[in-house]
Write a structure and sequence with these properties.
With about 300 residues, this protein is α/β, with parallel strands linked by helices. It has helices at about 50-55, 75-80, 105-110, 110-120, 140-145, 160-165, 175-185, 205-220, 235-245, 250-255, 265-280, and strands at about 10-15, 20-25, 30-35, 35-40, 65-70, 90-95, 125-130, 150-155, 190-200, 225-230. The chain contains 11 helices and 10 strands.
Length: about 300
């Protein structure tokens, strides 16, 4: 069984790293990344980082979320690497295989140290997080936004609190994240919402997407985007194990829809049309910021309905 509500307390392992800046492979819109931690304790049932942990032989699908690697010399290594001419002025993404604001960031402060160095070197940066802890660093992010550029994406999968507890059991309440985003916006930091991944049968209805878009607008998001679920090797076994435990009536349809990594093209096309229509309705087309959002519709309960055919 992959899904275990009573997972043990995470194990924290201190390690050292040979390099801090990584060249991103397979993502043409990203070139360089920083990951101060290895692994993640959020335990999101759809997390793509499962693949990295298994391939790196740092765990299995079953124990994902129970082990976190802390790169204790990360700041010293990064300080040396940012001296290289090839990295001067380069855009760097913080956290592509982990959330940079793991709970232990409160103790180790590796993300804050990295942001300080990026500010001092005027490197443009972006990051994705599910943690409201980021408000601790609003001063650094505001400085970065002034001297280079800084973009923050808050991952919000759902604002249905029952569903949130099921699919993201180790994360902060999505409304805490939204309030953190508003704090950053008030400080002049470009910050918005990324609804990714959209989960077929769970969060792909128009009502579910509109609820997140409306919450993003209410909390002054600079942008709103969404992406469909991908099930890479290892991630698929992890996620479908969860579906089999929690939503067994959906399992056969998922297995038919995902013979490979991606959902059917027809489904993805319809979902994109739905997302773009909602983005426009809530004032996010072209990243417009000032349009007043209509009242959000009622959020459907945790029903196992596939809103779009897959």
């Amino acid at each position: 069984m992959f899904y275990n509500e009573f997972m043990p307390r995470p194990e924290y392992i201190e390690i050292t790293c040979k390099s801090a800046v990584n060249r991103v492979q397979g993502m043409p819109y990203l070139k360089w990344s920083l990951n101060p931690y290895g692994g993640c304790v959020h335990r999101c049932r759809f997390c793509f980082a499962v693949q990295y942990r298994v391939v790196a032989d740092q765990g299995t699908q079953q124990d994902f979320g129970t082990r976190l690697f802390i790169k204790t010399n990360f700041i010293e290594v990064l300080a040396r690497e940012l001296q290289r001419p090839g990295l001067q002025g380069e855009h760097i993404t913080l956290g592509t295989a982990t959330d940079p604001y793991q709970p232990v960031e409160g103790r180790y402060r590796l993300t804050r140290g990295a942001l300080t160095l990026l500010r001092d070197h005027a490197n443009p940066m972006s990051l994705l997080t599910k943690s409201p802890m980021i408000v601790r660093d609003v001063d650094l992010l505001a400085d970065l936004a002034r001297v280079a550029s800084a973009e923050v994406f808050f991952s919000i999968t759902t604002v249905d609190l029952d569903l949130w507890r099921t699919v993201e059991p180790g994360t902060a309440n999505p409304f805490h994240r939204l309030r953190a985003m508003r704090t950053l916006r008030e400080a002049g930091v470009p910050a918005g919402v990324m609804m990714a991944p959209i989960l077929p049968g769970l969060t792909d209805s128009a009502a579910s997407i509109e609820a997140v878009a409306a919450a993003a607008r209410e909390h002054r998001a600079a942008y709103f985007s969404a992406a469909p679920l991908r099930l890479a090797p290892h991630v698929k076994e992890f996620y479908l194990g969860f579906i089999g435990d929690e939503y067994p009536e959906l399992l056969a349809r998922y297995e038919r829809a995902y013979p490979g990594t991606y959902a059917p093209a027809a489904y993805r096309e319809k979902l994109d049309e739905r997302v773009q229509r909602i983005r426009a309705a809530y004032g996010f087309a072209g990243n417009a910021e000032r349009r007043r959002a209509p009242q959000p519709p009622l959020i459907p309960r945790r029903g196992p309905q596939l809103a779009l055919p897959i």
